Amino acid sequence: MRFSKICYDDYNKISYETTGNITAVFTWVDVDNSRYSFNLEWHDTDASIIRTFLLFYYKVDGTIELYDTKHHRMFLKRTKCDTVTLGDLHIGATVSIFSRQMKVASFGDEYTQIQLGVLKQRFLIEYMTSGPVVAMELLADNGVKKWRELLGPTDSEQARKDAPSSIRARFGKDKSYNAAHGSDSCESAERELDIFFPESQIARYESPRSTVTFKNTTCCIIKPHAVQEGLVGDIISEIQENGFKITALQMFYMEHPNAEEFYEVYKGVVAEYSGMVSQLISGPCVVMEVTGPDSDTPSRFRAFVGPSDPELARKLRPNTLRARYGKTKVQNAVHCTDLPEDGLLEVEYFFKLLE
Known about the structure:
By secondary structure, the chain is an alpha+beta fold.
């Protein structure tokens, strides 16, 4: 049998093969035969060593292969592994391959890096710049590991199965919209922190811009005692649930001269002035720009915060912030701007002068 003609119609996805007087027509089907490769690490606890593997992922059927790079032999023949999908395979991720927890250390070849690395990076950039983000520096012994465990698996659906109390399980949607990011190593943490909290003056000009608006604005400070008591999340939630927007937020350690300057308007007016200054410098405070739809925002927010004396607030305005979280006239959970005309000035003090 002799083939006299083979041609391919790209538009119709049909090939024609002619042999003698017989023409066979084959319809072509779109099949993605992409094969991606990744360098994996597995901590062999029995031998107390890190073993390295090359993982091949076949997109056409979702099968995988594992190649032992040290002994130069196939470790796992091509097979289906339900716990591994292409979305799970990104640098820093940990995947479970037949009960072995393996970390994705890097891309295995240039093709994979181009196809997956560049596309994923482009998506993440678009996503991260689509709106405001909250960046935090977290401190703890073995902090990277603890934070990663608290976050849970990258895929929020998987997190709901394996770590239902984790952050991504509770607040995430899927693999991309998974609520929060966490550095995967101490080196990554240092590099990422320097983006948001640069030490050099020059680098600060290149860091992400603040979200402060200076429009229809008032100032709110969560005082150090409330920060130390773990009330920041509750207070922020109540502010948002009551119709106010938090358009800027930053943690400050106040110096004594700054605290005296900020509270100068109360000097000689309220007996608690010295105590207020001492409380503000006793630890970190969280400062927020709170905004609303109109210029009446400072007055409405002042009413929502409640009387400065928490005992009085619990009697007269039991649903206010100070009634719910305050303890004394000094430790009354939050400071807010008293006079409407001072709202912008107080916000500028923190987000222009001190910053």
